[in-house]
Every structure is written in structure tokens, then in C-alpha cells.
């Protein structure tokens, strides 16, 4: 049997699976660090920074239609 962590980790993973969607984002080597640096300058997590960028892009595209 495979051990996937402590009971607390298992509970957290179960909660995350129920409450969040996740996907893999693949990019060129070095881009992740560049995006992380930009997020840090905005005092944001990398996740929040990427979500904001996507939402701003969608808003911009809607305005062009």
C-alpha cells in the first residue's frame, strides 16, 4: 500500500479536490521564474497572478467584440 502522507495532508488534499479545479500549465524553461518575479513585485502568489492575467485578457477580448 502506498503512503500518501499524514492524515492532515490527506484531509487537505480531499478538501482541495472537492473545492478547486486544477490543471497542468506547461511553459518554456525560465518562464515560471520570470512570472514568479513579476507576481512577487505585485505582492501576489504566482497562482493569483496567472488568474488575474487570464481574467484581464478575457475582459480585454470581450471589449474588442
Structure explained in plain terms:
By secondary structure, this protein is mainly alpha-helical. Helix content is 66%, strand content 0%. The protein has three helices and no strands. Helix 2 crosses helix 3. The chain starts with 6 loop residues before the first helix and ends with a helix. The mean pLDDT is 93.
Radius of gyration: 17 Å
Q: Count of DSSP E strands?
A: 0
Helix proportion range: 55-70%
Provide the succession of SSEs: HHH
Structural class: mainly alpha
| Overall outline | extended
Which stretches are low in confidence, meaning pLDDT under 50 for 5 or more residues running?
none
Distance between the termini: 54 Å
Brief account:
With 65 residues, the chain is mainly α. The protein has 3 helices and no strands. It is extended, with a radius of gyration of 17 Å.
Features:
65 residues; mainly alpha; 66% helix; 0% strand; extended
How would the blueprint of this fold be written?
Elements: H1 7-19, H2 31-41, H3 46-64
Helix pairs in contact: 2-3
Amino acid at each position: 500500500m502506498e503512503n500518501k502522507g499524514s492524515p492532515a495532508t490527506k484531509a487537505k488534499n480531499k478538501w482541495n479536490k472537492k473545492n478547486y479545479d486544477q490543471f497542468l500549465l506547461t511553459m518554456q524553461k525560465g518562464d515560471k521564474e520570470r512570472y514568479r518575479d513579476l507576481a512577487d513585485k505585485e505582492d501576489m502568489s504566482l497562482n493569483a497572478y496567472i488568474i488575474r492575467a487570464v481574467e484581464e485578457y478575457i475582459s480585454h477580448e470581450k471589449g474588442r467584440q
